[in-house]
Amino acid sequence: REVLLSPEFWDEANRFSRFSWPVEFVVRAMKDIGWSGFSVGNALTPLSNMGQNLFDPPDVAGWDLGRLWFSTGSMLARMNFAATLTANQRFALATSAKPYAGSSDRLLTWAVDALRTAPLDSTVRNALGDYLRATGPWTGSTTQLQAKVPGLLHLLAGTPEYQFV
């Protein structure tokens, strides 16, 4: 009760201030993107590739914190997991995004809000908008949504802003 009601717990300055552990990343991504047809078992190998074997810490002290989660291999494993997850959820994501398909900017705002990232730098946001418009004008068709929304959420889940909790 004391922790949950403390001012430090609710202080906005403490949001997005710590790099997420692999299990935090996986659970958050599954919650934000969707997990229909996906199980925790599907996440065990990616977790291991990210450097965290669930329920099997390296010693009784638990996992090392901090820079261990910043390796090139673990970041690639995060991106690969996000790619697998978004591809698995392609049709559900397109359906969820349909009300926001009127413009690429509106869709991007929906995606950023859906994944609850730290504030994105304008260059990152512009690059994501460019991704949506890369193959021609934005139409918002079902085919375009099925092709672009999973890729957009995959790219968002790979941003530095999504890696922080």
Description:
The longest helix has 17 residues, at 72-88. The protein contains 9 helices and no strands. The chain is globular. The chain has 165 residues and is an all-alpha fold. The chain has helices at residues 2-5, 7-10, 22-33, 40-49, 72-88, 90-97, 104-115, 122-132, 142-157. The model has no long low-confidence stretch (mean pLDDT 88).
Assembly annotation = single chain
Report the β-strand fraction as a percent range.
under 5%
Low-pLDDT stretches: none
Q: Find the count of extended strands (DSSP E, 2+ residues).
A: 0
Global outline: globular
Q: Quick check: average pLDDT? A: 88
The string of secondary-structure elements, in order, is HHHHHHHHH
Structure keywords:
single chain, mainly alpha, 57% helix
In short:
By secondary structure, the chain is mainly α. 57% of the residues lie in helices and 0% in strands.
Q: How would you summarize the topology of this molecule?
A:
Layout: H1 2-5, H2 7-10, H3 22-33, H4 40-49, H5 72-88, H6 90-97, H7 104-115, H8 122-132, H9 142-157
Helix pairs in contact: 3-5, 4-5, 5-9, 6-9, 7-9
